Amino acid sequence: MSSDDFRIAFHIGAHKTATSHLQRSLLRASDALVEQGVRYYGPDHFRLPGRTLSALFGLRERRAKRPPQDQLALMRKGADRIVFSEENFIGTLAHTISQDIEFGYPNANIKIARLSRALGKPIDLFLSVRNPTAMINSVYSQLLRGNKIIDFEDFKAMVPMTRGDWADLVTRLRETPGVGRLVVWAYEDYSALFDDICLAMLGTQITPVAHHVNPRLSAQAVAQILAQNDAGMQGELAKDAANAFPVENGFARFDGFSDREHDFADMAYRAQVDAISEMPGVTLLSPAAD
Questions:
Q1: pLDDT band for position 61 (50/70/90)?
Q2: Cβ(254)–Cβ(216) below 8 Å
Q3: Domain for residue 232, yes or no?
Q4: What's the angle, vertex CA 103, arms to CA 101 and CA 107, rounded to 5?
Q5: Would 205 be classed as within a structural domain?
Q6: H/E/C letters for each residue in the chain?
């Protein structure tokens, strides 16, 4: 294979769509993947000081240690395919109260275009989408686990569901210069599609790790966290509450939405996925019909 004949695959998320599960599966398989000509880099690499994608490839004002294409060659190490996975690159969802929540990833296409220009090659994108009410519930649990405690109604106001239009995001990404393949799947189909996702992204299949890497908090756990926080208590409130009321022991998962809100979200989400399935140049993975 020539020095320029290789592919770049980028799993961009989205958040709370089993990204941690996929990343841990890829990390565990990384040595075996090297033998098959695939180099994988995920959060364990990109979340170290000075190793974010923006820092490594000079996407910020501060100059990178080396030219972007030299950095890419260093990370590639002659592989046929280099695979990135870092959902925080396109935006973050678990900010503190004083910061914006980038629900809908309004700048994702701009960031991808900059990265592709820096690398001098098209990037194949891999994106998972999820029902917005389930996603927001899950992000809220993650926020609490990170000791960023806020009432759910206040958090929900920061992430209106109308901003989370997956069809709009996919359209923007598909129109972005420097994007090669664009592969999408629904989080709800993730388990059934794991082999297909890996084959599309890696060119091979791997064995998945155990599921539920970051499970949602239970309703009882959330209630305890909020009550203890209101009482001025400090410490590992989320950890203690999660241990006291684990979902695995039958405690109901937290859900801050009404039936009416769920119905609206379900309808909008189905319409968005249907629209994505019809988009030229987009591959929507779906389970095989029985």
A1: low
A2: yes
A3: no
A4: 95
A5: yes
A6: CCCCCCEEEEEEECCCCCHHHHHHHHHHCHHHHHHCCEEEECHHHHCCCCCCHHHHCCCCCCCCCCCHHHHHHHHHCCCCEEEEECHHHHCCCCCCCCCCCCCCCCCHHHHHHHHHHHHCCCEEEEEEECCHHHHHHHHHHHHHHCCCCCCHHHHHHHCCHHHCCHHHHHHHHHCCCCEEEEEEEEHHHHHHHHHHHHHHHHCCCCCCCCCCCCCCCEHHHHHHHHHHHHCCCCCCHHHHHHHHCCHHHCCCECCCCCHHHHHHHHHHHHHHHHHHHCCCCCEECCCCCC
Q: Which two three-digit tokens encode residue 225?
A: 């966290």
Contact 181, 253 (CB under 8 A): no
Is residue 156 one of the residues assigned to a domain?
yes
- Does position 156 have pLDDT exceeding 90, yes or no? no
CATH number of the domain residue 169 falls in: 3.40.50
- Domain containing residue 148: 7-211+273-284
Tokens 């998945």 appear where? 208
- For residue 224, being part of any structural domain is answered with no
pTM exceeds cut of 0.90 = yes
Alpha carbon distances (Å) from 106 to 4, 96, 282, 286: 32, 18, 19, 26
How many domains is the chain built from?
Answer: 1
